[in-house]
Specification:
Layout lengths: L3 E4 L5 H12 L3 E6 L3 H13 L4 E5 L5 H15 L4 E4 L14 H29 L2 E6 L3 H4 L5 H21 L4 E8 L5 H4 L3 H10 L8 H12 L1 H4 L6 E4 L5
Parallel strand pairs: 1-2, 1-4, 2-3, 4-5, 5-6, 6-7
Length: 244
Amino acid sequence: MQPCVLITGASGGIGAKIAEHFSNAGYRVGIHYCHNKTSAEQLKAKILENGGDAEIFCADLLDKKACVFLRDRFIERFGSIDVLINNAGISKIAPINDVSFEDWDRLLSLNLSSPFYLIKSFLPDFLCNKSGSIINISSMWGVSGASCEVAYSASKAGLIGLTKALAKELGPSGIRVNAISPGVINTKMNEALGGDILRELQADASLQRLGNPCDVAGAALFLADNEKSGFITGQNLVVDGGFI
């Protein structure tokens, strides 16, 4: 039986590339989206055309009940889960004086609480299998902090803490939990920063380039592979080109 992976926020950018990498490696792929149905459908069609197996799932991850329902539909479709990748997230670049209470609550809810909701929802399945890999997509700003991104940095730092604590708790059950902290990745979301800022960020990286979604997807596939990373858990793999 082919292994199964669920990737949240898989309708574009990093999530879509992760989905493609896992499909090419023989995984059956669950593509989660919230708003961008067209992109999710296009990704599913691409995977099917290449001989893979994929399904799309719509859910608002801010809703605890929606996370449980997402789990139920995923298990109904694929029968089990081997890898959960919590990739969905949002950011806000602004001085703290311009960050509203609502902004803070929304970033913490989607970036930190929703991975907790999904892990809780799928945990009985992982425990039943006595195996599995949970991968949380954090950020290098969760390690070092970023000026004018206080809510985002705090949420991603919390996700790293969740990863390390959960790895210790679930390790005896054969479940591995790791995080990936990307640096500046060349995605549509980061294009909004503008060319000058992106060139400055590129210059600050030791490798003198921006990352691309394949860099993150390759790291995720490595951490999911029991043969290649079966003795790795509780780690935060920083994929930033030497930025921090």
